[in-house]
Amino acid sequence: MQDDLFGVAYPPGLAVLRGFALAQAGELLEMIGQVSAVAPFRNMVTPGGHAMSAAMTNVGLGWVTDRKGYRYTAEDPQTGVTWPDLPEALVGLGERAAEASGFTGFRPDGCLINRYSVGAKMGLHQDINEGDMTAPIVSVSLGLPAVFLFGGLNRGDSTMKIVVEHGDVVVWGGPARLYYHGVMPVKVGQHPLTGGVRYNLTLRKAV
Ligand code: MD3
Ligand code: FE
Question: What is the pTM of this model?
């Protein structure tokens, strides 16, 4: 069983791999720069008409939202051009993190890239737009720290907090795959590699 510093157990299916992506952080940030030159970060609109505070782009199959709903697309709806390829280095990182967490054979086909400026957050939600719920999701945090909130299968379930820092990887699958989760507003800070922002990459099996 994996525990936090004070012995509070994470639920089955949730793994926190501290510093797992640290050695690749520079390479990942360079990739984000290249991707965003082609597929710029944008604040997508929810079906309810609210702009999300985290700016987003994608590689591989891309998660999008607009007034019509949430879905995965091969093309960036803003340009009509295919999202940039999912780099093999990112696929490999996802595979190794999943394997280290007990999920064998994970092969992501898309990665949502979230950019949080100070104050940006993500409300409690479930990730339910993927076609294969037997596959885990792998999250990589870069830059400023953040507090993840996660609960259970029901919106009203009590929540726990985990602080995630630059280079940390969180994997959730199995019984935790459909747990509600969110991100608290990012606090002011400066990170040597990203300045005043936080990035999160989520590797997913979209189809
Ligand atoms: C699920 N992104 O893009 S996953 C998303 O920091 C998203 O941008 C987060 O949620 C972000 O859909 C990273 C955070 C997370 C943390 C713990 C969990 C999801 C979890 C525990 C159980 C289930
Ligand atoms: Fe999510």
Answer: 0.97
